[in-house]
Amino acid sequence: MARSILRGAYDRALPLVDRPLRCDERAAGRQACADDIRVAIVGLPHCTGELRAAAVDGLGRALIAAYRQRGIGLLDDLHGTFALALVDDRRDEVLLAVDRVGIETLCIAADGSRWAFANDAGAAAAALTGDAVGPSKLADLDPQALFDYLYFHCIPGPSTVFRGVTRVLAGHYVRIDRHGIATAPYWSPSYVEDRVAPLAALEEEFLETVKSSVARAVEGATRPGCFLSGGTDSSTIAGLLEAVTGTPANSYSIGFDAEGFDEMRYARIAARRYGTIHHEYYITPSDLVDSIPRIAAAYDQPFGNSSVLPTYYCARMAAADGVDRLLGGDGGDELFGGNTRYAKQRVFDYYDRSPGPVRDVARALLAPAAWQAVPLVRKARSYVQQAAVPMPDRLQTYNLLTRVGADAIFTRDFLATVDVDAPPRAMRAWYARAHARTLLNRMLAFDFKYTLTDNDLPKVMTACRVAGVDVAFPLLDDALIAFAERLDPKLKLKGFKLRWFFKQALRHFLPPEILTKSKHGFGLPFGIWLGRDAGLKALAFDSLDALKRRGIVSPTFIDRLRADLLADHATYYGELVWVLMMLEQWLHAHAAGGATIDRGERDPAG
Prior knowledge:
The protein is of the alpha/beta class. It is built from 26 helices and 15 strands. α6 runs parallel beside α7, α9 (about 310-320) crosses α18 (about 440-465) and α24 (about 535-550) crosses α26. It is globular and about 75 Å long. Residues about 10-30 and about 595-605 have low confidence and may be disordered.
């Protein structure tokens, strides 16, 4: 199934350079044209309020009417998944917006007095230049974005890998006119932290809301299915899917023949509980060799989350079965406090808020070098050291780039083009703008962007697009987000119990084995397989050898990574091999026309 595309170009001196708003949209009524206004919208939008009543005669026409009456206020009644482009010829104005979570995307390329927009970064640059294939050499790429990729394993918005191209942030709109370009939020997470309500009433409201969210996610689908990892989120959706459709759900799971990575047992428990038509596939190293180049090339910029491969094989199974929409469980952790780091950071917060003399005594007791051979003492000392780091920097304690060191990883010429402090500075700024007082909700707001919008959602969206199947995320339904924002944070993380309310509300619905299992996911045993499979090792190491010639990563470090670091800790440093391999695979597919980064003059490689 081809992804819908929005594309256009705008010039400060001329009205619309590319007059038609091109939109390959599967649903009718999503494009409209009046005498002076044109609009197109892609995704799975739904409406509330006045816009809902007007949309009966066509969403496109309703959006035009709402824009004339309310301007950007129309976004208050536009929900679900969408990317919106509206061109007002009378005012020489373009309005762009994406949904509240950033599931759909829009990118803007700017070149002095001209702008262009498209769903992905390369297409936006191509729309501006008129180049059918877009940027094709490393001189077109932003060195800072490449550095950020190695830091985060993705490129957080609003940056993109291309110079002069930015991504519209989730819950934001962009207005372009003869005076320039302006962006602002129309929505952001805002937490109510003092709401008091009976637990039974909250549970009832939650169950009704999540069931309605699943029902809304399958609207328009003829044969829906769901991912099923065996965790609480995917199991909840699998169970509710049958309830809202009245037929057994098709569920899809991925397994790994590697100790500590396979979670198929829990997926089977959920499938039996809810009577799903269950489908399984065990990924092999050969599968990775076959699919890595294709997946890397499918992204509009480098992307390093290795769980994209299991997601892709799940989606491919579903597409082969004729499923036209898969439901993903993304979002539950970031709404209801399910990530293990939330409990860990609470420990650090307790220590950080303890009286100064208590902290002084703890440091003194843990200081003697002779005690460091005792594992518990060593771990306690590590906790004390981490607690001294302020948030959100503390979340990056185990960051690969900072642990190894930027000076060791990158070439000197490349480092001269970037600001190594930019990633933590951007994180601090985003963390500071959270509309929340409690530590937990501030972390949830932070993860809404850095975990969901920038990482997990592009992973699933692109994997499903390549596989040829649509995808929706019931747990990111706007109504469920609003419920979670109003939920007392002490119910999300009760003491150190993750997702306490979510599990409490579903205690009679979810199997007990799933309620009590530890968190896992679609983790890939890449580092382990790297040492066992010759084909996978050849693909990875050939990619690293090619990356040496780019002038980005130090050849000396790549040799050290291959010869020493992988042998020391295959899983930990295997992740770094993956991230570098995917970078080279993307560069090979998208930037073959150049060998080094350009900063005004060509730098020598190496």
